[in-house]
Design brief:
seven-stranded mixed β-sheet, 13 helices, 22 strands, DNA damage
Length: 640
């Protein structure tokens, strides 16, 4: 479905997320929403000192100076003659469009303003709006702006304070006029990076962190560099692409090698993608079939064919610079797979986790002739060293044994077959961490605490299905506000108020994003992880890194009295189970960085135990304004 916005026409195919509902417009956000506080018997944090708009009633901007956001050190703005990065292009969801617009024309915070909101972009109804409120009708604010019983004073157009808030062309230092700062000279590795041979799970490097927090992390330039092989050809599966930027990440000697882009864009979005590639004859395309409404091609994977062999990288980052800049991302990098001797049987090169079979099955699900050659290449290589299980989603409705091929039922089968019951497992919490949220239903039993929890609590073949604690990690407004990117980081967290208002019950599960263990508390997460932890959070029963957010579109939902499952989107991830590593559980690594030597402890990317939202915390929602406190760059958030 195409819609018009200030950025021109764009195709609605929800973004880095996959809501089951179409992604709403920022201008249609007049709906009530009340946030409940956590139960009194549960631990809460009190770090958030800013009361953001309580949904469901008019709010007026308080005239006070908020606590300043924490100081975050980043590299100083480079001089203009050293800036080589092009301005970011607007790609992806409407939430990302809003973030792009905010970066290009930030709205400055002014504590002396009677209404900072009026200094922003929403000025179509100046005479009736002095704050921002949600009501049941789109017309309520226009016709009866005093729904709370108090009449809002009209704005004083002659007030010189209102004129102080001016819109700048680019964000101020430390990001500079092209928004991005250059990476330090020692940011990229010049020799083989420290390789975690045990788990092969890595976080992306983050610009602006101390060097030790990037030691052992990987950047896309390193992944594609000769450090890992002499590249002959590659495939990039993803949702968002900036093709010019992506090709610049390949080293010069590999830049003209053939690249196949597997995408899910249609109509106008597809035309724009193809137009991006016009200058590059080495780029070809494969369009993934998306036959079910609101599905996306959300898989993020690289297939890298070298002179020396073949490699698979499964990751959480889009092929755009913003995703490799100041966000927390994760990836699994396979070993180098060597070519099998000629004449090897079909079953040769298989791993104990059947990774080769499952990868071939996933690629076959595209039914795309452009991928046929790659399927044959994989058959000719030895994948026997792989110790993770592949978990994919492909669009369709599946019956019988096919129900366990994809989505959360695939995860359930693997947990049933390859884990075992644990004493007191009802006390082992389930943890889900994600960057977007789909429609869960009117209450928790509709999906989350029903079929999905049944999957996440599976341990071995036991018929016992306990009801352990469930901790869901999703950034609060303050997490976003105080991040390295500031409010624009929320463009990659496209949870909308229209979805949130339908599932108030969900917010009692929410926990803050805190990642001191990896130095990434201020690098907002685009990574998605799910795991089962011990009551003291020192052990894991399993761990999953994936592209799949918390949505039925990504994971699938049972239909027709549980006789079939419907999956809307393409997703891909890898599952770690202790038995594949000859272990009973994974010990949790307490200090992940610097990662200079292999470890048998698992590098969970955020702090455990998670910190529950306090009564003042609210989940980030991209399409409502946040004007009461400035972000780390002195700006407020007023989505168009």
């Amino acid at each position: 479905m195409s819609q018009a916005s200030q950025h021109g026409k764009w195709t609605l195919s929800s973004s880095d997320d996959d809501n089951d509902d179409p992604l709403p417009s920022a201008s249609n956000n007049n709906s009530p929403l009340l946030f409940g506080s956590p139960p009194p018997d549960q631990h809460t944090s009190s770090e958030s000192n800013h009361n953001y708009p309580k949904i469901g009633s008019n709010f007026h901007q308080p005239k006070h100076d908020p606590d300043p956001p924490p100081s975050i050190e980043v590299k100083p703005e480079p001089k203009s003659d050293t800036v080589t990065a092009a301005p970011p292009i607007s790609i992806g969801s409407e939430a990302r469009h809003a973030a792009h617009a905010s970066q290009l024309k930030p709205v400055k915070y002014d504590s002396n303003q009677s209404s900072p909101f009026l200094a922003g972009k929403r000025k179509k109804d100046e005479d009736s709006i002095s704050g921002w409120a949600l009501s049941d009708s789109d017309d309520d604010d226009k016709d009866k702006g005093q729904s709370s019983g108090q009449k809002d004073p009209p704005p004083k157009r002659s007030n010189p304070k209102l004129k102080k808030a001016k819109v700048e062309e680019r964000p101020p230092s430390p990001h500079g006029r092209t928004y991005y700062i250059d990476e330090p000279d020692d940011f990229f590795e010049t020799s083989v990076p420290p390789v975690n041979d045990t788990y092969r799970f890595y976080l992306n490097k983050v610009t602006g962190l101390e060097k030790r927090y990037n030691t052992g992390a990987l950047h896309i330039k390193e992944i594609l560099s000769p450090l890992f092989g002499t590249l002959k050809e590659s495939v990039q599966f993803n949702y968002c692409f900036d093709i010019a930027w992506m090709l610049q990440q390949y080293p010069p000697e590999f830049r003209d090698k053939p690249v196949l882009i597997v995408h899910g864009d249609k109509r106008e979005a597809k035309a724009r993608l193809l137009q991006q590639a016009q200058p590059y004859s080495q780029v070809r395309f494969c369009q993934a079939k998306l036959d079910i409404a609101f599905g996306t091609h959300h898989t993020k994977m690289m297939l890298l064919w070298y002179e020396e062999g073949f490699r698979v990288v499964i990751l959480t980052s889009n092929m755009i610079r913003a995703d490799w800049y100041q966000k927390t991302q994760g990836l699994w990098m396979s070993p180098l797979y060597l070519r099998l001797p000629k004449g090897s049987p079909e079953t040769a090169g298989e791993s104990p986790t059947l990774f080769k079979r499952d990868l071939l099955e996933y690629l076959g699900a595209y039914r795309a002739p452009e991928i046929t050659d790659w399927i044959q290449r994989i058959r000719e290589h030895d994948l026997s060293e792989t110790r993770v299980y592949l978990i994919g989603s492909t669009p369709g409705r599946y019956l019988g044994s096919d129900m366990e091929r994809w989505g959360h039922l695939r995860l359930r089968k693997l947990l049933r077959d390859h884990t075992r019951p644990i004493p007191n497992e009802e006390k082992w919490p389930v943890i889900g961490q994600f960057s977007s949220i789909g429609s869960m239903g009117l209450d928790k039993t509709k999906w989350l605490a029903g079929e999905f929890q049944c999957t996440l609590t599976t341990l071995g073949k036991s018929s016992l299905r306990p009801d352990p604690p469930m901790h869901l990690i999703y950034p609060s407004v303050d997490d976003v506000r105080t991040s390295l990117e500031g409010y624009p980081a929320g463009g990659s967290l496209p949870y909308s108020i229209q979805t949130a208002q339908k599932q108030i019950w969900l917010h009692s599960y929410f926990h803050r994003w805190q990642a001191e263990t990896t130095g990434r508390s201020h690098a907002m997460p685009h990574i998605k992880t799910y795991m089962r932890a011990s009551p003291d959070f020192t052990q894991l029963a399993w761990f999953l890194v994936t592209s799949a957010n918390l949505s039925k579109a990504a994971w699938g939902a049972l239909e027709k009295n549980n006789t079939q499952v419907m999956v809307r989107s393409y997703e891909l991830g890898v599952l770690y189970v202790p038995s594949a590593f000859s272990m009973s559980t994974f010990p949790v690594q307490m200090d992940v960085f610097p990662a200079t030597t292999p470890s048998t402890s698992f590098p969970v990317p955020f702090d455990l135990p998670p910190k529950r939202y306090s009564s003042k915390d609210q989940p980030w929602m991209w399409n409502i304004p946040y004007t009461q406190a400035p972000d780390t760059h002195g700006n407020i958030w007023v989505p168009s």
